[in-house]
Request: fold
Amino acid sequence: MTISMLMCRLRQPIINIPCSGKRLNVRQIEKEKVVVVMGATGAGKSRLSIDLAKCFPSEIINSDKIQVYQGLDIVTNKIPKEDQRGVHHHLLGTINPDTDFTPTDFIDTSSSAIETITRAQKLPIIVGGSNSYLEALIDDDDYNFRSRYDFICLWVDVAMPVLQSYVAERVDDMFRNGMVDELRPFYSPNGDYSRGIRRAIGVPEFDEYFRREEFVDEETKQRLLEDAIKEIKLNTWKLAMKQLRKIHRLRNVKRWEIHRLDATPVFRRRGEEANEAWKKVVAEPSAMVVARFLYDSKNNHNVVSGLRLLPPSENVMAAATC
Reply:
């Protein structure tokens, strides 16, 4: 079944209304919907979040603890403006790079964004690799996220050897796109790499290069450059493994319901073949899962016509099959 056919079937959700003579107070039982997109660095989380946002009226909340800061767009792999396709992003490059943005700060800011998005009759999509932020938001006892929202998690997964190769290629692309010049203003002889954006992979790795580049010959300078790039690749890979372990813990120990999407076939192809694979194994299955989450009567036994999220329009259905 195509996504558009499914959306047509779900255009008018089934509503179960008690047969008693009492008026049902919908506001007491209705929960807003939230979608969470997770995965290791480089797996395609941002791409999927944009695809979903073009299928459903949505806004995106960034949950990457480094991408929240202003600056270092290449080094932190922020999604470029042109790739955002007009979708509004919250907490993406908005925080002072010299401050510490804590999990508590994320809870406060993201919860405010969720409320703003739902008031606008749109779907909040939270996306990022910092699972500690997600865990803080969803399982925080004081905020009581679970009592206020129904949420669903989509995990974009890629076989580790395949992802490792891609991550290395991406670092090389970052270098060709100006990574060194972008990093240079963030170097300081007394730099603190434990605060703010200077925790980003790339900043501490280039410390020795910037510290010595003016005092060594070209051969040594080239070796320092290659060592820094090699260290970035290694530390990015370590980050991906750490993120993956946290996802397994959330799924297997904390028993979060997480829908896994295997994007490995996408990374084994190039060009249009890769795009077709992405649509087939990631984008369309994800849209189907989210559509069922939003409109299926099994998940929406409390949904009424006053639901703030807009029903799918003809444009939304067209976007789902593009």
Q: What stands out?
A: The longest helix spans residues 218-252. The chain has one domain: 31-298. The radius of gyration is 22 Å. The chain is about 45% helix and 10% strand.
